[in-house]
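yo

u said u wanted the structure for the complex thing, so here. seqs first:
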Amino acid sequence: GENVEQHPSTLSVQEGDSAVIKCTYSDSASNYFPWYKQELGKRPQLIIDIRSNVGEKKDQRIAVTLNKTAKHFSLHITETQPEDSAVYFCAAASYAGKSTFGDGTTLTVKP
Amino acid sequence: GAVVSQHPSRVICKSGTSVKIECRSLDFQATTMFWYRQFPKQSLMLMATSNEGSKATYEQGVEKDKFLINHASLTLSTLTVTSAHPEDSSFYICSARDSGTTHGEQYFGPGTRLTVT
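structre next:
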């Protein structure tokens, strides 16, 4: 089955700096890669996703890149703000299949 | 946007009793729903995939007779934890996939905090 590895497990940055979280996956059949943000005690919220026919996608301060050859994808957050502090999960899935999640990255943005 | 509700949000039950958790897609139809379990500071562990009108598909190591899943309609899936024990205490989250798209997005419910005493 699919295996997703996520790094780092914790990340602390100063407000205004950039944050990068990286994930690798094992199943070449995976073609959908969402990123979720989860605040303490709340549900995961989809923040951005990318499909295998695209190499990069950007939405305001958030961007995701995908390297299918190397089987890795990354989340980039620029101009970080304290409200960006949360746990971020990457996932890999096929369109009709289940998602496999990474172990999560706890991001702390210091004011 | 797509909304998924989950009920109850929090439940405390005694060891040996059963607890039913409901997951509803409020503004879309979902032929597929997923049930996850999440321990503190850990990732989401998929327990089973719930398919409308058919039997659920359980992940390896998940006891299907203990975690009963029913997906009787396109907007409702239920998870029943039977004969609950303290080790079943956890945060249970469902998600639903919009049948009207092929994009694969999942929308999560708010979760249910189960405490077995």
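Residues 9 and 105 of chain A are 4 Å apart (CA to CA). DSSP finds no helices and eleven strands in chain A.
cya
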